[in-house]
Design brief:
- The chain is built from two helices and ten strands.
- With 122 residues, it is of the alpha+beta class.
- It has a five-stranded mixed sheet with strand order 8-5-6-10-9. Strands 1-2-3 form a three-stranded antiparallel sheet, covered by helices on one side.
- Strand 1 (4-8) and strand 2 (17-23) form a beta hairpin.
- The longest helix is centred in the first third of the chain and has 12 residues, at 35-46.
- This is DUF1667 domain-containing protein.
- It holds the Pfam family DUF1667.
- It comes from Peptostreptococcus equinus.
Length: 122
């Protein structure tokens, strides 16, 4: 593993330019303006994770798609596998915000939840 890595923080709109160096078993972060940036940088070096936002097809709803998101971060390397799994699903209206549409997707411990109400089509 390389001892130094540079990247831009994505935790908040400031977008700090971070430099992370590994010394022995500790990561030193420079360039962050908040504690969240330091935590993000260390996580990126150890095991990067992301939230996903997408849509699922809806049957019998006033819209054909419902926006969804993960309720917890998933490992970055699983993003494309999770997206393929989401694309296989279809749900039936009515749907409420916060409904769990896919539980524990691919064993990640993260659920796919609805982020919009979709009423049944009249």
């Amino acid at each position: 593993m390389e001892n130094k890595k540079e990247f831009t923080c994505i935790v908040c709109p400031v977008g700090c330019h971070l430099t992370v160096t590994k010394e022995e078993n500790q990561y030193n972060v420079n360039g962050n303006t908040c504690k969240r940036g330091e935590i993000y940088a260390q996580q990126e070096m150890i095991a990067p994770k992301r939230n996903i936002a997408s849509t699922i097809r809806v049957e019998d709803g006033f819209l054909n798609l419902v926006p969804v998101k993960t309720d917890k971060q998933i490992p970055k390397e699983m993003i494309f596998d999770v997206m393929k799994e989401i694309n296989k699903y279809r749900v039936t209206a009515p749907i409420k915000v916060g409904d769990i549409l896919i539980e524990n997707i691919l064993g990640t411990g993260s659920n796919i939840v609805a982020t919009r109400n979709i009423a049944k089509n009249n």
